[in-house]
Design a protein that fits this description.
Length: 442
């Protein structure tokens, strides 16, 4: 993968080939990733991905054209290819109209961050996984290594952000559709933390071996683990927090914004860049503040504002990406101790995961989906039996509003495990949620 010096020299060389009043923006993504796929607690495939890419935006006045290409790591070859792309973009720009929402950062807001690499050697992590899961049918994928984002422009701005993390997404399988899904992600490997996850998953796997219960549709007191709540929160991330969606009445939280709906006073949601793994700048060089508070005491506060929306609505950009989705979303902890969850639930549903989630009524912020993997019926604070698949259909204004009993005090840090084309640096930090009455329809 390339480093900050490589990006600086590449863009400095390209700047020398600009003509007139042209401005060049360049955004890069780089990674060096070790990966291993597990089946039956054994490594079935292992390898490494080392790649870098660059996106170029050539601007003159209000016209601009864009292109992306892979970088080889060979300075001479990459410089020649970038210059050739700039020449093509110049020809194409003559054919495009003015962009009324074009804005660039004219301040040379340069930043540089390279986090410590505290990752274990890949073979040590794989040995810990295989040893800890011995005798179980573990299926999963382990990814680890450095991920870097960079930005540079012909005005002299340089930004670099690099972190080293791992993400182990895994499942203990019992039989057929009986399984317990889990994940473990962090900046460093902790044997004790992984052992706790293994023990918890083993306990639930044993409970899955009991005869399953079939519940009738209705409302049940329910605990959503952080993994289950994540499915609902990710739906909200699709446009609900962006200023464009809010100003055009497309946000799923529209009723919250107009005062027709409300969330529980304990709910606080923010874009917490300072404590996430995403870079502190976005792809056009605008810096992200340490935190943007989106919801406080259950009420809306700020929105994510991309540069283009800033022009359209006469606002100041706050570092949001073009899609105005959060990259480091965080839901504040509550006061419910994780160790007391089953006792506080007393009798009801313990939901380990949800899937097939979608909006059933977006304007009402009503979501639907299915329970998945480890979902159990609990009585008197004890797991009694697994529960056959249920469909829920309920409003976020119930789940995180009128029916919310409490949030757990120890939020879980969940890294996005997407590896399509490249590893992502998005993350969510969120607690579990105890809900007094969650609506299940099937």
């Amino acid at each position: 993968m390339i480093d900050a010096t490589y990006l600086d020299e590449l863009v400095t060389h390209a700047t020398g080939h600009l003509v007139g009043d042209e401005i060049l923006l360049a955004a890069t993504h780089s990674e060096s990733t070790d990966f291993a796929r597990f089946n039956n607690a054994r490594v079935r495939q292992a390898g490494n991905v080392n790649q870098s890419s660059i996106d170029l935006d050539l601007i003159e006045g209000a016209r601009h054209t864009q292109a992306g290409l892979r970088l080889s790591g060979d300075p001479a070859g990459d410089r020649a290819r970038v210059v050739a792309v700039i020449e093509r973009l110049r020809d194409q720009r003559a054919l495009v109209p003015d962009d009324p929402h074009l804005i660039i950062n004219t301040d040379a807001s340069s930043t540089h961050f390279v986090g410590d690499n505290r990752l274990p050697p890949a073979e040590d992590a794989l040995a810990a996984i295989a040893g800890g899961a011995a005798g179980r049918d573990l299926v999963g994928i382990y990814t680890a290594g450095a991920v870097a984002s960079g930005f540079a422009n012909s005005l002299g701005q340089r930004n670099w952000f690099q972190t080293s993390t791992f993400n182990f997404d895994w499942t203990f399988s019992l039989q057929a559709d009986k399984a317990v899904k889990n994940s473990y992600a962090d900046y460093r490997w902790d044997d004790q933390a992984f052992d706790r996850k293994l023990r918890d998953a083993t306990t639930k796997l044993e409970a899955l071996g009991r005869s399953a219960m079939t519940l009738s549709p209705g409302e049940y007191r329910t605990y959503l683990t952080p993994s289950a709540l994540l499915e609902v929160v990710e739906l909200l991330s699709w446009g609900s927090f962006g200023v464009r969606a809010q100003r055009t009445s497309q946000s799923a939280l529209l009723r919250l914004l107009t005062g027709e709906g409300e969330l529980h006073p304990s709910v606080r949601i923010s874009e917490d860049t300072a404590n996430g793994v995403a870079p502190n700048f976005q792809e056009h060089g605008f810096l992200r503040p340490s935190e943007v508070v989106l919801i406080e005491h259950g009420r809306p506060v700020d929105a994510l504002v991309s540069p283009r929306s800033a022009v359209e609505f006469d606002l100041e950009p706050n570092g949001a990406a073009g899609d105005e989705s959060p990259r480091s979303l965080a839901i504040a902890a509550g006061e419910l101790d994780v160790d007391d969850v089953l006792d506080e639930l007393d009798s009801g549903l313990y939901v380990g995961n949800l899937w097939y989630t979608n909006f059933s009524d977006r304007p009402a912020c009503r979501v639907t989906g299915m329970t998945r993997f480890a979902t159990f019926w609990v009585e008197d604070g004890e797991i009694v039996a697994p529960v056959d698949v249920l469909r829920f259909d309920d409003s976020v204004y119930h789940l995180l509003g009128s029916q919310l009993v409490g949030l757990t005090s120890d939020p879980e840090f969940v890294f996005d495990n997407s590896t399509y084309e490249q590893r992502t640096s998005a993350s969510v930090k969120l607690p579990g949620a105890l809900i007094d009455a969650m609506r299940f329809t099937l």
